[in-house]
Amino acid sequence: MCTNETGWLSLQLQRVRGVDVSIGQHDSQFHWLSQLRGRRQHAHLQAEDPDCPLECDCPSRYPTAMYCHNRNLQHVPYVPSHIKYVYLQRNQIRGIPEGVFDNATNLVWLVLFHNRLDSDKIGKNVFSELKHLERLLLDYNDLTHVPPNLPKSITDLRLSHNKISKIPSSSLEGMLNLTTLHLQVNSIEDVGGVFKGLKSLTLLDMRKNKLRKIPDNLPEKLQQLYLEFNGIESVPAGFLTTYPKLRFVRLAHNKLTDKGLPPNVFNISTLLELDLSFNKLEKIPAVSRNLENLYLHANKIKEFSLSSFCSTIDMENFSRLKMLRLDANGISAKDIPAEAAYCLRRVAFIDV
């Protein structure tokens, strides 16, 4: 598929997230289907794919895409073999039986967010033959576990806003191409070493779960780690030295205290953004001079320690911070020493 077409499809995915065709306003839930049959009699739709199911649209201009979103569908429709991009979001689909995609092994994107998918009603091998699948969007459903036998080709897996509580170690085994994994807003308490083999993973989002600690055995290539709104109380010693490619770490809305932060645990030169807001910290932790964004608001900090940013101050040794938030603590502007103007010379404004 050409770059322009892929870009257009990406745009459409964003646009159709907000589409509402007000199906429920009709006397019959299938009234729209009768309208669709009538529409296809018009000249401008005669060029549509004759294999396209009546429940969906298959624009002739983009012959590998099939749009079935917002149709009040309760089942996955027939997918022609040449289709690569299927949009089934915002329907009422509860299950996906075995064999549904046997004719559609060329699928690259499968979009199923905002349905009513039940883990017990999804076939164990329903996705296994989709050897070219790259994006599988299953967020905002009723899943209680990760679907089994997912294709190893997937690069983007979205399972947020479900009811997942556990992730067995075999769930993501062999998924060497996975780069982004969204698991936010579930009920996950522990993940063990399930992420260890994800050698390409660069983004892991586990916001709003029930984690008590930072997951173990994270992939070495991980760059973005989002763990806000959990119950994490501490950060392991040497955490960032173990994962030197981490650039963005967000630990806001947890239960972190000074006792739970080993000395210099965040003083790593590769880190660019660190969010520790809405915790129980009483001191500003030492950070690297290369850090650009630091969020410490809504803690219990009562002292501004310049040494947390600069051990020495001169023309060449200064912090690269651009954003520093310290509001909703016990610090006021008068607590900031004059030397901060040299150490924090790139910060436009310190929010206290």
From TrEMBL:
Gene label: fmodb
Keyword Disulfide bond: yes
InterPro entries according to UniProt: Leu-rich_rpt, Leu-rich_rpt_typical-subtyp, LRR_dom_sf, LRRNT, SLRP
Pfam families reported for this sequence: LRR_6 (PF13516), LRR_8 (PF13855), LRRNT (PF01462)
SMART domains in alphabetical order: LRR_BAC, LRR_SD22, LRR_TYP, LRRNT
Record function comment: Affects the rate of fibrils formation. May have a primary role in collagen fibrillogenesis.
UniProt feature coiled coil, ranges: none
Protein family membership: Belongs to the small leucine-rich proteoglycan (SLRP) family. SLRP class II subfamily.
Localization: Secreted, Extracellular space, Extracellular matrix
Principal location: secreted
Keyword Glycoprotein set for record: yes
Gene Ontology cellular component annotations, sorted alphabetically: extracellular space
Assembly behavior: Binds to type I and type II collagen.
Domain called LRRNT: residue spans: 51-85
Name under which the protein is recorded: Fibromodulin
Keywords assigned by UniProt, alphabetized: Disulfide bond, Extracellular matrix, Glycoprotein, Leucine-rich repeat, Proteoglycan, Repeat, Secreted, Signal
